């Protein structure tokens, strides 16, 4: 098996670099590899095997065999036990997994540990669901016995992004496997490493071969092969809206596989004059700058009621200036580098677009340092709704702040986007909180908080932010299909 010896200040480990198919480590059929870069210093960490269409075929065949064979025969109770065992193993390996995540993605080590903890909690939660998936008996006529079953869909292709590599891995695998499906998961080209460590834990937990297959590779090759595959029954994707559309087209053009999409956002964060200002500033700051702004639900459009606007901007600037940007392995760091040169360039081009359009840079607006993809926390004011920085997902530490007059105005501005992933309201008035939450067209609305996702609560998009829901009981629906069995008890109806 190919491995690399990796080391950070606090952990060292043997890093698998192959493709994990059928519980074995293999090289790609074509023997291709690609480099993995540390975004904090732009050095190459290692190289990993690249899956092509041929490897996708092999992984799908392994997942199909497991689905029709060992996994189908496994009891729900055992599926649950295996997921919980995997959760335990992830917790036991938290230092290694978190160090790997910080090295590969650049995220601050304290946040990386949080991600591993949440990934384990998600797997454990879905382990609990495995033996609680139930059907129904429905009475229609006296001579009929009808039951409705929930069945797994089959082989699921899963394509994940780089912003929360191990967490997205768990969000995807947990419900799919709990429901009795098998999986071929492709990680993001920028961040393949933590998923490969976790793949070893899949084997150690005792999952039968072929149930969970993990491949590294490129979206245009391996991702496209999964989405267009004739023997993949379902594809689940998290990433950009543009790629989400491509995946849906590929599903439509192949076997009409089921599709769930968790896409981008341009989420509004609404601060009313009666909000607790200290609290609101903390959450607005966390809402946009957490994970370096690389969150699909980032609160990137901040609207503040006009009576407190000037004070709020001043206080928010002071707060953002205190965010520690730097070495991901420093325990005090809040914001590390952006994930890649491509993302760095994209964000800097949005900052330029904001400046050119005449918006005011209140704070930041520049690269930080000369090595690594660090960007200063950036706040734009004097923005108008038609500006590119107000309409498009920037996916970096960049936000815009503007005023609103009253509740109606706040709701109108909050909904002035093609996206609908998340939104937040800051107020001390219960009526305002509920009225505005009900009026916002978003899959999640936070009140007096932000980014506080929990594995028990569904998460996903209205409008162009997606199809289906992650987390909670709702995510199981993405991985189950309904079967009706209708039994005739009486004599034949027509003689
Ligand atoms: P992306 O291209 O949408 O990547 C997400 C995943 O889809 C990756 O695994 C990617 O593979 C794969 N992919 C790409 N093209 C594909 C195709 N034609 N068929 C199947 N799979 C494909 O996102 P990105 O380019 O990394 O980032 C661009 C923007 O997307 C960001 O700036 C941000 O706005 C948004 N984004 C959103 C989220 C989210 O959580 N909703 C996460 C990441 C990015 P590769 O690894 O080869 O790209
Ligand atoms: Mg990409």
TrEMBL record:
One Gene Ontology biological process: acetate biosynthetic process
Domain Aldehyde dehydrogenase: 25-485
GO molecular function per UniProt: aldehyde dehydrogenase (NAD+) activity
PROSITE patterns for the chain: ALDEHYDE_DEHYDR_CYS, ALDEHYDE_DEHYDR_GLU
EC number of this enzyme: 1.2.1.3
Pfam families: Aldedh
Chemical reaction(s) catalysed: an aldehyde + NAD(+) + H2O = a carboxylate + NADH + 2 H(+)
InterPro entries, per database record: Ald_DH/histidinol_DH, Ald_DH_C, Ald_DH_CS_CYS, Ald_DH_CS_GLU, Ald_DH_N, Aldehyde_DH_dom
Keyword terms of this UniProt record: Oxidoreductase
Active-site residues annotated for this sequence: 262
Protein family per UniProt: Belongs to the aldehyde dehydrogenase family.
Protein name: Aldehyde dehydrogenase
Organism of this sequence: Pseudovirgaria hyperparasitica
